[in-house]
């Protein structure tokens, strides 16, 4: 046997060297074979055990949220109308299409009723499949009809159990992502436990079941897990192709189930763009991800009958602009530091300009105005001028679209999640800056100095770092989007706590690094954290599961029963968006407006209907209502005497402002009581 080995001592005779080499190779080959077999068995055992734990935690989460839902409403015992009322606001609207498909005499008739719908918006026929992301309701209703389960399971239970089952998929995907990043399934276990113990801030599925995000976020988590695996080095071509297919399927399903998909994927595309500019990701894989995003969105556009809002999305314009700019600037990643910085600035300007031009051209060509309310809202939210626009102010006054409350961080800190997240974020951010500077400079000397940091920022870790930073900024600015960040926060924090690279970086900074010490810390700290979480929160979870409540809303139940008993099936109802969704679900009556707000015509119609609460003459209100074929109007005390919002944010205040009826306040001084009194002049 011939080997090549490094000289270590003085000269030896040729015969003795060959004999020694042969003996050592026999021993080393036996040892390597034994180590390889033992390592392979251990990997199989670890993979099996980790997979079982992942599936178990997913099912446990599904059971947990299902039990909370049942305990909170006593869902199994209440009447059908009460069950339907529990699907508040837009949740009730989406579920009504599932109910409509179930009650249709045939699947074809149900689909025809959705494509040519004249009950969701009075005096107007709309295509529900084009306007709304309800393919999941269509698929689920068809599945319920063809499966032999009608005698054993009510349609509503088939629906809600599917959503609770998706929570198992969600937790499984978070678990796998953390496992892929850290290399140990202990990290996935910690991520899943944090997701469960921080349930208030990671999900709201148990009380907003049909909400679009509850359908979409599990697929988004699968996509992130697939991207994390794709960005690993040394993948075989077959593995890479299968992973790209998984990314495409997850992207498509995510896009199909949520109308805000384009904005979430735009942030994702920005993350890829930033990392690619600093040469921290393989360019070929980044290009594939751009193409997958575009193709997935275009496929959804076809299924939604060429929905114009998708065609005019910033995501398609941005990704197309990036691909065009790359063909123009072919030598973007060559040259010294200043040369590359100049090219990078030019590249960013080129992509930004192209994005705006392409998007403007598409919207102008197709006469698109569906998403203009979002940009008006963003403009007003970030202080680029005040606005009297009713739609923008409606969003600005809602707490869900405000800044993330500070008490969120105190809740996340109680489980140690926020502390560990910051602990993981800081060293990895420093490492990212060092690596980015090294890549831009291209200096061998700097590369040697930064070599110890590169191991802490592999491409998959780099992507998840920028992902969590960008979605963190989104959550801080808009509370409703926090669920995209907090779930990934669980993944990122658990990865940092179980990562060899992070602990090595920290220990080397304090000159305490040894391989054995790193391994001990890597496993002991997460185990201690898990024990702490179990000790502190297990009793609370048990108490929560044992707490029993009951749904109680007699006024709304009475209203729905009255409508069904005293009005014709063709009656048209006007009122608030939130309540009318329940009217459609519970009674099947025709509506004037509804909560799915992503249509300019509907927004204008809603503003007109809401004039019933504004300072308008009875003749004007009557004329407006009759123009939409209204037969009945539902007036709500909660709006007339609104106290939930402060002065200026009440619905009647927003309408008066939009109508130019700005309220004035006179300050009067009561000399006897010596206090200032505000009196509104009408």
UniProtKB/TrEMBL annotation:
Give TM segment ranges.
41-66, 179-196, 216-235, 241-258, 270-291, 297-324, 344-362, 416-440, 461-479, 485-507, 519-538
Write down the Pfam families for this protein, in alphabetical order.
Answer: Dpy19
Superkingdom field: Eukaryota
| InterPro entries per the UniProt record, alphabetical | Dpy-19/Dpy-19-like (IPR018732)
Q: Which UniProt keywords apply?
A: Glycosyltransferase, Membrane, Transferase, Transmembrane, Transmembrane helix
User: What main location does UniProt list?
Assistant: membrane
Q: Which GO terms describe its cellular component?
A: nuclear inner membrane
Biased amino acid composition, Basic and acidic residues: 21-32
According to its UniProt record, where is this protein located?
A: Membrane
Return the annotated region ranges for Disordered. 1-32
Q: Kindly give the membrane topology term recorded for this protein.
A: Multi-pass membrane protein
- Ranges of biased composition (kind: Basic residues): 1-10
Molecular-function GO terms, alphabetical: mannosyltransferase activity
Similarity section: Belongs to the dpy-19 family.
Q: What is this protein called?
A: Dpy-19 like C-mannosyltransferase 3
């Amino acid at each position: 046997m011939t080997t090549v080995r490094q000289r270590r001592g003085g000269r030896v005779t040729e015969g003795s060297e060959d004999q020694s080499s042969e003996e050592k190779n026999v021993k080393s080959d036996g040892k390597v074979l034994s180590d390889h077999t033992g390592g392979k068995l251990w990997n199989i055992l670890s993979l099996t055990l980790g997979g079982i734990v992942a599936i178990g935690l997913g099912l446990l989460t599904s059971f947990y949220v299902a039990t909370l839902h049942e305990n909170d409403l006593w869902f199994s015992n209440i009447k059908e109308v009460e069950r339907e009322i529990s699907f508040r606001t837009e949740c009730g609207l989406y579920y009504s299409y599932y109910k409509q498909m179930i009650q249709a005499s045939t699947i074809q008739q149900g689909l025809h009723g959705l494509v040519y719908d004249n009950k969701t918006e009075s005096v107007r026929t709309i295509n529900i499949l084009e306007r709304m992301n309800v393919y999941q309701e269509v698929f689920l209703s068809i599945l319920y009809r063809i499966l032999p389960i009608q005698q054993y399971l009510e349609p509503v239970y088939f629906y809600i159990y599917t959503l609770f089952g998706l929570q198992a998929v969600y937790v499984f995907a978070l678990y796998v992502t953390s496992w892929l990043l850290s290399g140990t399934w202990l990290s996935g276990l910690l991520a899943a436990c944090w997701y469960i113990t921080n349930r208030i801030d990671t999900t709201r599925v148990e009380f907003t079941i049909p909400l679009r995000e509850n359908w979409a976020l599990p697929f988004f988590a699968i996509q992130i897990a697939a991207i994390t695996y794709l960005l690993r080095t040394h993948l075989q071509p077959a593995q890479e192709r299968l992973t790209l297919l998984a990314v495409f399927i997850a992207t498509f399903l995510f896009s199909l189930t949520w109308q805000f998909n384009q904005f979430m994927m735009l942030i994702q595309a920005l993350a890829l763009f930033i990392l690619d500019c600093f040469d921290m990701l393989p360019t070929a894989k980044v290009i594939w991800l751009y193409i997958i995003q575009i193709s997935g969105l275009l496929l959804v556009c076809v299924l939604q009958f060429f929905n114009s809002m998708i065609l005019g999305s910033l995501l398609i314009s941005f990704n197309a602009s990036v691909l065009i700019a790359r063909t123009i600037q072919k030598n973007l990643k060559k040259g010294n530091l200043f040369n590359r910085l100049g090219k990078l600035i030019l590249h960013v300007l080129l992509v930004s300009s192209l994005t705006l031009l392409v998007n403007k051209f598409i919207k102008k060509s197709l006469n698109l105005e569906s998403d203009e309310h979002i940009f008006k809202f963003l403009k007003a939210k970030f202080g680029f001028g005040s606005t009297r626009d009713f739609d923008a102010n409606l969003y600005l006054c809602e707490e869900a679209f405000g800044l993330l409350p500070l008490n969120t961080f105190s809740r996340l800190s109680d489980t140690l999640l926020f502390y560990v997240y910051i602990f993981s974020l800081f060293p990895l951010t420093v490492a990212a800056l060092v690596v980015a500077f090294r890549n831009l400079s291209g200096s061998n000397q700097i590369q040697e100095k930064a070599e110890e940091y590169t191991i802490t920022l592999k491409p998959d870790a780099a992507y998840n770092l920028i992902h969590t930073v960008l979605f963190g900024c989104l959550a801080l600015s808009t509370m409703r989007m926090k669920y995209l960040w907090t779930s990934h926060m669980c993944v990122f924090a658990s990865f940092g706590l179980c990562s060899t690279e992070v602990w090595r970086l920290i220990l080397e900074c304090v000159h305490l690094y040894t391989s054995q010490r790193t391994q001990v810390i890597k496993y002991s700290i997460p185990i201690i954290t898990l024990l702490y979480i179990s000790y502190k929160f297990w009793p609370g979870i048990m108490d929560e599961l044992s707490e029993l409540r009951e749904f109680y809303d007699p006024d709304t139940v009475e209203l729905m029963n009255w409508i069904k008993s005293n009005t014709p099936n063709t009656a048209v109802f006007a009122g608030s968006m939130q309540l009318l969704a329940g009217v459609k679900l519970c009674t099947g009556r025709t509506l004037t407006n509804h909560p799915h707000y992503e249509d300019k015509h509907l927004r204008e119609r809603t503003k007109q209907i809401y004039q019933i609460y504004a300072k308008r003459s009875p003749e004007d209100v009557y004329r407006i209502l009759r123009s939409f074929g209204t037969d009945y109007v539902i007036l709500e005390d909660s709006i007339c005497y609104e106290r939930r919002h402060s002065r200026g944010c009440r619905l009647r205040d927003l309408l008066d402002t939009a109508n130019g009826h700005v309220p004035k306040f006179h300050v009067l001084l009561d000399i006897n009581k010596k206090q200032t009194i505000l009196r509104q002049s009408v």
